[in-house]
Structures are given as C-alpha cells and as structure tokens.
Design brief:
The protein is α/β, with parallel strands linked by helices. It is built from eight helices and five strands. It has a five-stranded parallel β-sheet with strand order 2-3-1-4-5.
Length: 191
C-alpha cells in the first residue's frame, strides 16, 4: 500500500497522513521534515525517514523559500531520494506535493480547501493573526506552484487528473475528512 496525500498549505495533509498511518498501521512520512533535514545539511544517507514529524508551522516562519529559490538542488535531491524510497518500499503514507505527480503508482489523494478556510486553519494552528496567515498561505502556495512548474513542468493544484480521489475539505470537520478518505482507501485496497 503506497498512499500519497497532497493539497495546498493548511488543507489538512499532515493530520490526514498521521491518521491514515495509525489506522492502517503504515509508515508515516512527512516530506517537509525531510526537506528541513536536507536544508540543515543532512545528506541522503543520514536522513531520518523512520521518524519524520509534522510541520507544525516551522516552515512558514523559516527562511527556507529564500534558500530554495536560489538553489534547486534541495528539491531535486529530496525528490530523487523519495522516488528511490517509494520504488523500493511499500506500506507507507506520505504527504508530498511532488510525488503524486512524479510517481506513477500508489493511491493519490488531493485535499482542496478555499484560501479563506486554509488561512483560518493556519492562523489557529500557528497562533498568528489571520491577515498574517493569509499572506503566508498565498506566499507559500505561489512559491510552490512556480517552483514545481520550473523544475518538473506540472501545475500543482490545477491538474488533478492523476489523483485517485479529490476531496473538498473547506466545510468538513477533521473527523469527517479522516473518515471519508479512510473509506476510499479501504475500497481501493479492499481492507
């Protein structure tokens, strides 16, 4: 079972990834944690993929986009590492922006939510002003869309044709999102 959870900032990817991992006893991989490790100078042979942590607001307040803007190597190295991992492993759930576009297999979920709702979620999660959250969400989304278009020529969030399931989480509770996606995964894998 290879499950990929994707969606823009504050759409619920990380929470869903944690939930699915626990419910289906799968390895949980938070790619933002691996990105953080690479940005700190860790190389692929010493990345800790066994115990990745959720992004609880560190990324939005880091200077990582500035570093990534001038250095494509960070993203390319991470994606190469992840592709190697998914080609050689099974039974995991991963939140990732790139792997659902770069890897041909697995079960892929896109969580969509409107900008206003995602800004509210980030504001609550990070305990920041709603206007600051809105600016951060727009900045992060814009950067990511442009970065992946440049590197891999895909339209993050626009082309959803390679996703097996798309769910609008705007007006759904976290529990509802978890239950709906879990049911789709169970149907797909007959578990």
């Amino acid at each position: 079972m290879k499950i990929f959870i994707c969606g823009f900032s504050a759409s619920g990817k990380s929470y869903l990834t944690e939930f699915i991992g626990k419910r289906l006893n799968l390895k949980v991989i938070h790619t933002s944690d691996l990105l953080k490790q690479i940005s700190k100078g860790n190389f692929e042979n010493i990345l800790n993929i066994e115990n990745t942590k959720m992004n609880m607001g560190w990324y939005e307040h880091s200077n990582l986009d500035s570093l990534r803007k001038s250095n494509d190597t960070i993203d390319i190295r991470l994606d190469k590492y992840l592709l190697d991992f998914v080609n050689n492993n099974d039974n995991f759930v991963m939140d990732s922006w790139t792997l659902p576009y770069l890897y041909k297999g697995g079960f892929k979920v896109w969580l969509k939510s409107d900008l206003s709702e995602r800004s509210k979620r980030m504001s609550t999660r990070d305990n920041i002003d709603l206007n600051e959250a809105l600016k951060l969400v727009v900045k992060k989304d814009t950067f990511s869309i442009n970065k992946f278009k440049k590197l891999y020529d895909f339209d993050l969030g626009k082309d959803l044709s390679n996703f097996d399931f798309v769910l609008d989480t705007t007006n759904l509770s976290l529990k509802s999102v978890h239950d709906i996606v879990l049911e789709e995964i169970k149907k797909k894998f007959k578990v």
